[in-house]
Specification:
alpha/beta, Rossmann fold, globular, SDR_fam, NAD(P)-dependent dehydrogenase (Short-subunit alcohol dehydrogenase family)
């Protein structure tokens, strides 16, 4: 049976592949992005996740109920820290909470996080404080008042993982699941940005250990799985899709990259 799905970030990379998979399955696909989608979809709605007014206008332009929201859009660590937090976390949160009431029972939200958020437990208290804010502006004010060690990209993905875990039981009260997919490096148009912000030598070492970087297709599969009925008892989970590098780091086979 055809489903109605929303996909952010369908202009390129993982988001485009996710949208293509849904479309190939006969689903009704709506793209939400600042750019036109890279694959054919049923409709495109302009949405700038860095601007609340743009998000609200996009939500107002949507009609009816949906079966899934896939939050794939994001910006790399080479972007200004405030923009990273706006797009990767706070705007995503604003969109999700504006849309979730339109997702019917049995539906799902899937957030694309990153293995860059692996260390979320070490600053859980700070992440919970940030997520206790109610609006984008309040979140940005908290971030400005509470400088974090490391880069904003890692922190944004840590926060997204914790947001997924915290809010999944809340959304489940209305029959909607929320999970996250955490990729390692992926061959997308912004891979060069990640090489710049995380160190090309680090990413090259990962590719050498695994044999290659991921492709968008490698990540789109887990995203569509978590968005569909076959994952109906998976909720509040951060699924690592990194070719095995996290397991190698956690078991001490290889040292953690300094990113």
């Amino acid at each position: 049976m055809s489903r109605r799905v929303l996909v952010t970030g369908a202009a390129s990379g993982i988001g485009a592949e996710v949208a293509r998979r849904f479309a190939d399955a006969g689903d009704d696909v709506t793209s939400l992005d600042v750019k036109d989608p890279a694959v054919p979809v049923d409709r495109h709605v302009h949405c700038d996740l860095s601007e609340v007014d743009s998000i609200d206008a996009a939500v107002a332009a949507l009609d009816g109920e949906f079966d899934a929201l896939c939050n794939v859009a994001g910006v790399p660590g080479t972007a200004p820290a405030e923009l990273v937090m706006r797009v990767n976390l706070l705007g995503l949160r604003h969109l999700t909470e504006a849309v979730v009431e339109r997702i019917g029972p049995g539906g799902a939200v899937v957030n694309v996080a990153s293995i860059a958020g692996y260390d979320w437990a070490s600053r859980l208290d700070a992440l919970r404080d940030l997520l206790a804010t109610d609006t984008v502006d309040e979140g940005l004010a908290w971030f400005a008042a509470n400088p974090q060690p490391g880069n904003a990209y890692n922190f944004s993905k840590e926060a997204l993982i914790v947001y997924t875990m915290l809010m999944a039981p809340v959304f489940a009260e209305n029959g909607v699941r929320m999970n996250a997919v955490c990729p390692g490096p992926v061959e997308t148009p912004i891979l060069g940005d990640f090489e710049e912000s995380m160190g090309k030598e680090n990413l090259d070492a990962l590719a050498a250990f695994l044999g290659r970087h991921a492709t968008p297709s490698d990540i789109a599969g887990p995203v569509t799985f978590l968005a569909g009925p076959d994952s109906s008892w998976i909720n509040g989970h951060a699924l690592v899709a990194d070719g095995g590098i996290s397991g190698a780091v956690l078991t001490g086979m290889v040292p953690a990259p300094q990113i």
